[in-house]
Write a structure and sequence with these properties.
Helices cover 43% and strands 17% of the residues. The protein is of the alpha+beta class.
Length: 235
């Protein structure tokens, strides 16, 4: 991008981070994504070619480094010391957005794939029985390609499946995408969603009882809303 023509360190940092998608790529790396396809799942609307460009630019700026892996195709992307220093900045950015613009989420902002990818990263696999467990999510009203998703938990690992893995389903969750997003973001509790019949849960009783432990929420879910007075003052 064209520079701001200022020596101010804020402007110099913005020249690197203010390009579209760049901060979201850093977010994905901070969340543990390392491989190119995993990064793509966190930014599904970004073209592969543009992602490659942004990754190359971040390498040139010294924010990330690419490491080759033995006996594996491609490489992995890791944050450098400069990149790791961005964690509190990204977290503060997210907390500000959760506090001040969470009410402005539109239907077009809902994305089943991104939601499931985010949820998969924070699932507490230790809360499941020491056996293979398959959880199916169905989002009513969603396009057929986004309606069904599966989480397979085994040996402490959680795998997200876009196609039916052909395994017996131990737990079935039926809801709509908006409700599940609200649960994930902390705008509504799982208990309240069940009381209001916004979510239907069927299957293994032990897994259902453990659901509040293994289905954790977004790291920004605990950010409180500002008071009405704060909104008035801001306007």
């Amino acid at each position: 991008m064209k520079g701001y023509g200022q020596f101010c360190p804020v402007s110099k940092a913005a020249e690197i981070l203010n390009e579209r998608w760049t901060l979201l790529i850093v977010r994905e790396l901070l969340c543990g994504s390392r491989r190119f396809n995993d990064l793509r799942r966190g930014v599904p609307l970004m073209s592969p070619s543009l992602l490659s460009q942004r990754l190359k630019a971040l390498q040139e700026y010294g924010v990330i480094e690419r490491r080759c892996q033995e006996n594996a195709r491609g490489g992995e992307y890791h944050l450098t010391s400069a990149g790791k220093e961005l964690r509190p900045i990204v977290m503060s950015f997210g907390e500000w957005g959760q506090r001040w613009v969470r009410s402005q989420i539109r239907e077009a902002d809902l994305d089943a794939g991104l939601l499931m990818w985010d949820m998969r990263r924070t699932i507490d696999a230790s809360a499941f029985p020491p056996l293979r467990v398959t959880v199916e999510f169905e989002y009513s009203g969603a396009p057929e390609t986004d309606r069904h998703w599966w989480l397979v938990v085994r040996e402490g690992e959680v795998e997200l499946c876009f196609d039916d893995p052909g395994l017996p389903v131990d737990l079935y969750i039926l809801t709509d995408l908006q409700t599940m997003t609200q649960i994930w973001m902390g705008d509504i509790s799982l208990a309240e969603a069940r009381r209001r019949d916004l979510i239907e849960i069927q299957g293994n009783r032990a897994i259902i009882e453990a659901l509040p432990r293994w289905l954790t929420r977004s790291p920004f879910a605990g950010v409180p809303r500002p008071s009405v007075g704060a909104y008035a003052a801001a306007s």
